[in-house]
Design goal:
The chain is of the alpha+beta class and about 450 residues long. The protein has four domains: about 170 residues, no CATH class; about 30 residues; about 120 residues, CBS-domain (Roll); about 80 residues, Uridine Diphospho-n-acetylenolpyruvylglucosamine Reductase, domain 3 (2-Layer Sandwich), CATH 3.30.465.10. Helices cover about 55% and strands about 15% of the residues. The chain contains 15 helices and twelve strands. The strands form three sheets. It has a five-stranded antiparallel beta sheet, covered by helices on one side. The chain has a four-stranded mixed beta sheet with strand order 1-7-6-5. β11 and β12 form a beta hairpin. The longest helix is centred in the first third of the chain and has 51 residues.
Length: about 450
């Protein structure tokens, strides 16, 4: 048989086709393995980048302070990234989106190689691709790494800071990042500051939800903050009966005796009556004159600061901060002096009682038994409510224009009651123990099981 015979060529052609098919199959298997390895690497990178977002933005103030004091190279990269949070977030989002797009495309290609698309399985093929790829991407690339990074924020941030720093400097990423940051800044300026108005009622509801989780001290502070804006000066001021003040015509020796007696750092100065306040004397201004026989202390008096009784204490706190005052004279609607209010009085509404070496340890009252108490008539209603565990909003019975317990009794009775006379408010029986022509001095308070009518 000659070489030109077709029958002699056929075996050679079949051998070549078989060899090419084997090479193609080997190439397809190798490509599939490489694609799977690349996919795993991309998933790992996605997990690291997603975890970086959670780690950097969940660092506590203590962690940030620790990083600032850390002199290591890793800590320096963390500080550089934290100094520009907008750029950091933009870089993380850009890289993560590129990686996730690559994962989706590569996963679809691998699945298409394993299970080719046909006319019969187009819908199921699409649904499997979307479901499986999305589940793997969310679980391995988002949820698990973010949970881990949040619990190990500081260590994860130090591990990823150097890589993010250099990725941030790659030209394509830096260009896109710059456009994102500028665009977001423009939108923020166009939309305004985005301030959200929250009403006190909403704050009270939120506070009620956290009541079981917060400690007693934290709960008290939060309640003080919520009620802070609605409190008037007259509710926290010290009445004129309890104010240490000195006549402007008093000699220096009498002034020194009062300073030693009261222990205050600022003393109101009046002329003739307390309604004519001339100023405030700061005790520290007297230090240069100690030991001198004759001192004209009147020249040291500073200008007084007057506020009305109905002024809100949050507004007064701002004025104290702006004008650098610590004390104000409270005046009524007729211009008379009702008392004084200090910066300490305002702060106590939030943090609770602030006691120093000159303050009484506690409110002066006597608990006779579980249902009977003895109060001074000048006890403020605010303190009375605290001792008796009364919420001012519980009942309209306790809404009063008076500031003190004695004033409350006089307001309800319409006159100054004498000894053994009483009024009833809710389930409380308020019995006057002693009084004079001007005021109620001592009051016995009895909790009754059922409300009694006057």
């Amino acid at each position: 048989m000659t070489s030109s015979d077709p029958l002699s060529i056929q075996p050679l052609v079949l051998d070549q086709v078989s060899s090419s098919g084997a090479q193609l199959a080997e190439f397809s298997t190798t490509g599939l393995v490489i694609s799977c390895i690349v996919l795993m690497i991309l998933l790992l990178i996605s997990a690291l980048i997603s975890g970086s977002e959670a780690a950097f933005f969940s660092l506590s103030p203590a962690d940030k302070e620790e990083v600032k004091n850390d002199q290591s190279k890793k800590a320096s990269f963390v500080n550089k990234m934290l100094s520009r949070p907008k750029e950091l977030l933009a870089t993380i989002l850009i890289i993560n989106n590129f990686i996730n797009v690559g994962i989706v495309i590569l996963s679809s290609s691998i699945y298409g190689s394993i299970a080719p698309v046909s006319e019969n399985n187009k819908v199921s093929h699409f649904l499997i691709e979307v479901t499986v790829i999305t589940l793997i991407l969310l679980l391995l690339g988002e949820v698990i790494p973010k949970i881990y990074a949040t619990k190990n924020a500081l260590g994860f941030s130090k591990m990823m800071a150097r890589a993010l720093y250099y990725l941030n400097r790659i030209p394509p990423i830096s260009w896109i990042r710059a456009m994102l940051v500028r665009g977001s800044s423009f939108i923020q300026k166009t939309a305004g500051n985005g301030k959200v108005r929250i009403f006190s009622g909403e704050l009270e509801q939120a506070l009620a939800l956290t009541k079981d989780d917060a400690s007693e001290d934290k709960q008290r502070i939060l309640e003080g903050i919520v009620k802070f804006g609605g409190t008037d000066v007259r509710q926290i001021m010290r009445s004129r009966m309890d104010v240490y003040a000195i006549d402007i015509d008093s000699p220096f020796e009498e002034l020194m005796e009062m300073i030693l007696e009261c222990g205050h750092s600022r003393i109101p100065v009046y002329e003739k009556t307390f309604d004519q306040i001339q100023g405030v004397l700061f005790i520290k201004d007297l230090l240069p004159f100690l030991g001198k026989a004759k001192t004209d202390w009147k020249t040291l008096i500073r200008k007084p600061f007057f506020v009305p009784e109905n002024k809100k204490i949050d507004d007064l706190l701002k004025e104290f901060q702006e004008k650098k005052f610590h004390i104000a004279m409270v005046v009524d609607e007729y211009g008379g002096t009702s008392g004084i209010v200090t910066l300490e009085d305002i702060l106590e509404e939030i943090v609770g009682d602030i006691t120093d070496e000159f303050d009484d340890d506690e409110l002066i009252y006597t608990k006779i038994d579980d249902n009977t108490y003895l109060f001074e008539g000048k006890t403020s209603l605010v303190d009375f409510y605290k001792v008796m565990n009364i919420d001012e909003k519980d009942s309209e019975v306790y809404m009063s224009i008076a500031d003190s317990l004695g004033g409350f009794i006089t307001e309800n009775a319409g006159r100054i009651l004498t000894s053994n006379e009483f009024v009833v408010a809710g389930n409380l029986k308020l019995i006057v123990e002693s009084s004079d022509k001007k005021r109620v001095k001592m009051v016995k308070v009895i909790k009754q099981e059922t409300q009694t009518q006057k």
